[in-house]
């Protein structure tokens, strides 16, 4: 990854700001703008720091960038954006897009997205991406000028449409299956995790009630008073500790969420293969039937039933001149068809090759990232246990002095 | 049993219970002076044409001379315990008679004869008898002895001998009447303080009871969600290769923590909840005892008032008043001594129960910590293996 942009340039999404403005339909709206800061990394930084460049972008521009990348690089597993609306919330987090916690987590997610693209061997070289980072005005026009929306295959958007593909590459079929499983299992996990977090919050917070009552009780006790009072304080500490614990866990959930959305990107690549294969098979079939038609006309034998064949039998054959003309047209079409088929075949093979290379890269990245995430989860649990041990050791000491 | 070691460290004056079955109690005298051991167990259902009820086996072992035998086994039903309690209250109106479990529990909708309900009741009845056995005065009560030793038919006939229902009702009516007359005039400062204390204590203990139940409920809800959480990781591992082991490791950690939280819950329900509940009942009892003392005082006061208006029959009354004065003094002293004893017991019970809660939580967190740390260690091993294989050409 010697040439990737991430090594040459520091990229951060450092701030988020609420803005109001008029949208395309001239309606007033509130939105959040994010500050992207970039700085060239000097290989020999002897106290000389390159200047920081910055520009503001809103979420919809990120979406535009990603859609462009999806269409332009269909063989690449394109990194996902953080979620548009808060999902898998547990009761404390609001589902409001303007909520500061949500905005903060989105800021981190957007930065992560940019870093992922910048570290991708193919995507980081894209000029539109570079312009997204460095050119505030006129970027939208630049993207639209690429005409990528026209290239987009609307069939890819029809998620549930099935194409009867006779010979798909088995690896892609398996991969699609895997991406479906991954999506399903991660969303299930996130949902249950949110419920577990909710319950855990309840357990901790109820202990806070002890503090107040112990304190009031201690007022009427002579010998037990001090023990009660100080134990109550520790119960308060215990109850308060859950807020930080769960906030940290949200970051873990975000890591899993990224791969939930990555599963979709993976699926998109498989779908693209399916479509290409479908087009190829359709074209081949078409060519075969044209060749057959040609042969039949040339030899005069009818091997396959056709309405035309029947009517000509009933109403008399065509003239030799007519037949010759038809054969000529067909032969031209067949010629074209064979060339197209050849290029489609080539395209298909290239796609499979380059897609599979990126998929291998993605698999490695996924395994590495998820393993790290799982380990960080364990680390968080350990930290939570240690805090619990500390608080209850203190509380035990206070109780024993009652 | 490590809890015995803990108890030792509190104070030298707190003796240790020799038997783990009755480890909830503290004894005024050392264990070597205890001569009455009682257990309540083996609930059995009895079905007759009229009713269904439960009897409990009450086993008593003793070295006391007043008992003809050293071991007794009888069966008693809840009604019998109620009878015993009312006899003790009658005989010692200003002593603190331990609480009985309630007749039935409305909240929580526990069925009358569910296993949980019967077990909770059994434990409370066991406590009740042992508290009486520990009481310096109540332990020698005759009705108590009969309760422990008499066969069923003997107990029935003995019950019928006491003052009838009507006379007992009469007492209650008089008691209510005199309390209405406001027998607080000459109440010694000490008992006013006790009253104030009990009002606040009662409030706080009721709140704590509610809080503890709430914590139990939250822990149970958490446990139920956790049960589902682990298996998802196992399911996921089936689709993966490289990270399958890590996922399975997480699944097993979560399952172990799940079991640990179940144990934590059980600890709460076995120790803290019954004690807090017992003291909620105790608050009512104590308020009742203070009222009865006021009544006894009220009797004296009203007689003294009457005497003040009848100067001629002074001699006749003075003997009566003397008796009443003695009665008041005895009642006051009995209550004062029992109050001090009750407060000490309460302090000990609270200290031991809450310490137990803290220990439960410590155990829980220590178990979970060990689980996660061993998972982490296993992952580091994997990482090293990976690194080594990368170095190889």
Overview of this protein structure:
The complex is a heterodimer of chains A (402) and B (393). Chain A is mainly alpha-helical and 402 residues long. Chain A contains 11 helices and 3 strands; from the N terminus they run αβββαααααααααα. Chain A has helices at 5-8, 59-72, 100-118, 127-134, 139-145, 148-151, 154-157, 170-218, 225-299, 307-315, 320-400, and strands at residues 9-22, 28-40, 53-58. Chain A has a 3-stranded antiparallel β-sheet. In chain A, a hairpin with a 5-residue loop joins strand 1 and strand 2. Chain A is elongated. Chain A starts with a helix and ends with a helix. Chain B folds into 2 domains: 36-153, PX Domain, CATH 3.30.1520; 189-391, Substrate Binding Domain Of Dnak, Chain:A, Domain 2, CATH 1.20.1270. Chain B has a 3-stranded antiparallel β-sheet with strand order 1-2-3. At the A-B interface, helix 8 and helix 11 of A face helix 1, helix 7, helix 8 and helix 9 of B.
The name CATH uses for the topology of the largest domain in chain B is: Substrate Binding Domain Of Dnak, Chain:A, Domain 2
Oligomeric state: heterodimer
Domain count of chain B, please report it: 2
**CATH architecture assignment of the largest domain in chain B:** Up-down Bundle
**Helix content bin of chain B:** 55-70%
Helix segment tally of chain A: 11
Widest sheet of chain B: strand order? 1-2-3
> SSE string of chain A, helix = H, strand = E?
HEEEHHHHHHHHHH
Query: How many E-type strands of chain A?
Result: 3
Biggest beta sheet summary of chain B: 3 strands, antiparallel
State the distance separating the first and last CA atoms of chain B.
58 Å
According to CATH, the homologous superfamily of the domain at 168-299 and 320-401 in chain A is Arfaptin homology (AH) domain/BAR domain
Low-confidence segments of chain B: 1-31
Order of helices and strands of chain B: HEEEHHHHHHHH
The fraction of residues in strands of chain B falls at 5-15%
Coiled coil (chain B): 307-334
GO biological process, one term (chain B): autophagy of mitochondrion
Protein name (chain B): SNX7 protein
Pfam family, one (chain B): PX
């Amino acid at each position: 990854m010697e040439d990737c942009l991430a090594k040459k340039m520091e990229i951060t999404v450092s701030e988020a700001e609420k803005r109001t403005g008029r949208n395309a339909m001239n309606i007033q709206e509130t939105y959040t703008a994010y500050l992207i800061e970039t700085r060239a990394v000097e290989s020999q930084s002897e106290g000389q720091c390159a200047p920081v460049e910055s520009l503001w972008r809103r979420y919809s521009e990120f979406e535009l960038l990603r859609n462009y990348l999806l269409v332009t690089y269909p063989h690449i597993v394109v990194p996902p954006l953080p979620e548009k609306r808060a999902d898998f919330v547990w009761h404390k987090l609001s589902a409001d897009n303007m909520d500061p916690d949500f905005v903060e987590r989105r800021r981190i997610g957007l930065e992560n997205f940019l870093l992922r693209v910048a570290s991708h061997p193919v995507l980081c070289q894209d000029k539109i991406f570079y312009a997204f980072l460095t050119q505030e005005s006129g970027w939208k026009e630049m993207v639209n000028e690429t005409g990528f929306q026209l290239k987009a295959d609307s069939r890819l958007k029809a998620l549930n449409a099935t194409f009867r593909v006779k010979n798909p590459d088995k690896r892609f079929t398996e991969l699609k299956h895997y991406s479906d499983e991954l999506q399903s299992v991660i969303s299930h996990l996130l949902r249950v995790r949110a419920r577990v977090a909710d319950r855990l919050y309840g357990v901790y917070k109820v202990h806070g009630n002890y503090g107040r009552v112990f304190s009031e009780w201690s007022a009427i006790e002579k010998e037990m008073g001090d023990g009660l009072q100080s134990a109550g304080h520790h119960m308060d500490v215990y109850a308060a500790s859950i807020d930080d614990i769960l906030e940290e866990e949200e970051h873990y959930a975000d890591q899993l969420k990224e791969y939930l959305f990555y599963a979709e990107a993976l699926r998109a690549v498989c779908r693209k293969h399916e479509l290409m294969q479908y087009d190829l098979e359709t074209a081949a079939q078409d060519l075969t039937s044209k060749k057959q038609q040609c042969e039949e006309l040339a030899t005069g034998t009818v091997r396959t039933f056709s309405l035309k064949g029947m009517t000509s039998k009933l109403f008399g054959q065509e003239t030799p001149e007519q037949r010759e003309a038809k054969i000529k047209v067909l032969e031209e079409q067949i010629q074209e068809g064979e060339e197209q088929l050849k290029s489609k075949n080539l395209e298909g093979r290239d796609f499979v090759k380059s897609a599979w290379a990126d998929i291998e890269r993605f698999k490695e990245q996924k395994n590495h990232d998820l393993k790290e995430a799982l380990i960080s989860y364990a680390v968080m649990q350990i930290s939570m246990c240690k805090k619990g041990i500390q608080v209850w050791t203190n509380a035990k000491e206070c109780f024993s002095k009652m | 049993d490590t809890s015995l070691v803990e108890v030792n460290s509190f104070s030298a004056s707190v003796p240790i219970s020799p038997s783990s079955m009755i480890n909830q109690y503290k004894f005024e005298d050392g264990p070597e002076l205890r001569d009455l051991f009682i257990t309540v167990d083996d609930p059995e259902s009895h079905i007759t044409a009229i009713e269904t009820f439960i009897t409990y086996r009450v086993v008593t072992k003793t070295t006391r001379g007043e008992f003809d035998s050293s071991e007794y086994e009888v069966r008693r039903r809840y009604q019998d315990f109620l009878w015993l309690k009312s006899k003790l209250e009658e005989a010692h109106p200003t002593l603190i008679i331990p609480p009985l479990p309630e007749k039935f529990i409305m909240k929580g909708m526990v069925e009358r004869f569910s296993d949980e309900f019967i077990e909770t009741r059994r434990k409370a009845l066991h406590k009740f008898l042992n508290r009486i056995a520990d009481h310096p005065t109540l332990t020698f009560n005759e009705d108590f002895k009969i309760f422990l030793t008499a066969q069923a038919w003997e107990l029935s006939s003995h019950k019928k001998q006491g003052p009838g229902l009507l006379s007992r009702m009469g007492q209650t009516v008089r008691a209510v009447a005199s309390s209405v007359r406001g027998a607080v005039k000459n109440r010694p400062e000490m008992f006013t303080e006790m009253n104030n204390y009990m009002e606040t204590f009662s409030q706080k203990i009721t709140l704590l009871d509610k809080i503890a139940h709430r914590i139990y409920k939250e822990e149970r809800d958490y446990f139920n969600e956790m049960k589902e959480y682990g298996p998802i990781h196992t399911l996921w591992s089936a689709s993966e290769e490289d990270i399958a082991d890590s996922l399975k490791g997480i699944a097993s950690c979560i399952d172990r923590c799940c079991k640990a939280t179940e144990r934590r819950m059980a600890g709460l329900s076995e120790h803290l909840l019954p004690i807090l509940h017992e003291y909620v009942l105790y608050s009512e009892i104590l308020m009742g005892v203070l009222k009865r003392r006021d009544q006894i005082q009220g009797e004296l006061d009203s007689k003294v008032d009457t005497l003040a208006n009848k100067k001629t029959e002074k001699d006749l009354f003075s003997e009566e008043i003397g008796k009443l004065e003695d009665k008041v003094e005895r009642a006051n002293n009995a209550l004062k001594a029992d109050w001090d004893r009750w407060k000490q017991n309460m302090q000990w019970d609270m200290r031991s129960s809450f310490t137990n809660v803290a220990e439960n939580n410590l155990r829980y967190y220590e178990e979970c910590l060990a689980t996660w740390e061993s998972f982490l260690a296993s992952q580091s091993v994997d990482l090293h293996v990976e690194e080594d294989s990368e170095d190889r050409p």
